[in-house]
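ARCHIVE CARD
CATEGORY: sequence design from structure
SOURCE FIELD: tokenized fold
FIELD CONTENT:
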């Protein structure tokens, strides 16, 4: 018979005995072995867009670092709300992560009367990952080459031209609404279930333009033409493309991406993941992939992201109001 001394530890036998001796709940001991099973990274957008690309880049690297599979699960629809609604119902044990965005967790509360979750109470912030400025793109076969071309066409034919987005409340939707106000033009919004499907329709010529965060691959591949970047300064990866301000339409629009857990996640898990993701963001291959997308890499402490995410909800209140986007 196997003796207790030689028994195989279960979730760390000695830590478990110590926890029992101290009167701590036994489940706390399991945190010492975190993670010991596959992790799910929920991306509340369809495959192919910027959020999906970021998620898959980080999931692959995180899997190598933690030694367990990290599986990306796409659940798109309703401007990221469907997947996020599902996420907040998951256990807060560190085995289900969310790639949160400014669209769902900052702008969304001001765009939806009933979003289905509380942007503060239902989440545990872990780390700010990066931000990506939006880029105005048109099909490569389009006759438009400058922002002036677009503005002139839209003013001559109000309501005729369309812009796509990953869904109502997404960064592309808000950027398009900002453009309507900043340029005083009438263009129609066509929402999709993610950036990927929207970009496919754009390249096929079914919509006329898109102010997107994930188009660099298609730009480099000669499928889309960049017109302007919605940032304060030009992007290093698109040095010859003017900012919106330089192109005569003063506006700035970018999307941020961060990692979150459901509410009341264990502090040990939160801190472990914060440490791991800060290390990942310093890896040359990860940095290269993100920067090739036009991303500005962030990182930082749990406290910094918590404060930032709350402040962004307040900031987007003014952005949504100024954009004229209606509340759904």
């Amino acid at each position: 018979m196997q003796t207790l001394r030689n028994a195989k530890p279960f979730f760390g036998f000695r830590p478990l005995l110590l926890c029992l001796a101290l009167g701590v709940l036994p489940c706390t001991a399991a945190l010492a072995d975190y993670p010991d099973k596959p992790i799910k990274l929920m991306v509340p957008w369809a495959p192919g867009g910027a959020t999906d690309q970021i998620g898959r880049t980080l999931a692959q690297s995180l899997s190598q670092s933690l030694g367990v599979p990290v599986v990306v699960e796409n659940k798109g629809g309703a401007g990221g709300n469907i997947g996020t609604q599902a996420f907040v119902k998951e256990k807060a044990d560190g085995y289900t992560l969310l790639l949160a965005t400014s669209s769902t967790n900052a702008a969304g509360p001001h765009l939806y009367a009933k979003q289905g979750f509380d942007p503060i109470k239902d989440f545990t912030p872990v780390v700010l990952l990066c931000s990506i400025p939006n880029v105005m793109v048109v099909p490569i076969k389009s006759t438009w080459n400058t922002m002036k071309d677009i503005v002139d066409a839209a003013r001559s034919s109000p309501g005729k031209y369309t812009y796509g987005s990953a869904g109502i409340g997404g960064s592309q939707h808000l950027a398009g609404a900002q453009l309507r106000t900043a340029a005083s033009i009438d263009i129609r919004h066509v929402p999709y279930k993610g950036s990927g499907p929207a970009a496919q329709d754009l390249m096929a010529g079914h919509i006329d333009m898109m102010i997107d965060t994930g188009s660099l691959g298609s730009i480099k591949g000669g499928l889309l033409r960049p017109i302007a970047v919605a940032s304060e300064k030009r992007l290093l990866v698109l040095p010859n493309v003017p900012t919106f301000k330089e192109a005569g339409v003063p506006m700035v629009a970018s999307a941020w991406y961060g990692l979150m857990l459901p509410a009341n996640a264990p502090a040990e898990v939160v801190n472990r993941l914060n440490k791991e993701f800060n290390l990942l963001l310093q890896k040359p291959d990860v940095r290269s992939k993100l920067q090739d997308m036009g991303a500005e890499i962030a990182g930082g402490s749990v406290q910094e992201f918590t404060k930032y995410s709350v402040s962004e909800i307040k900031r987007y209140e003014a952005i949504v109001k100024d954009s004229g986007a209606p509340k759904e």
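CARD ANNOTATION: The first helix runs from residue 13 to 21. DSSP finds eleven helices and eleven strands in the chain.
SHELF: design records, drawer C
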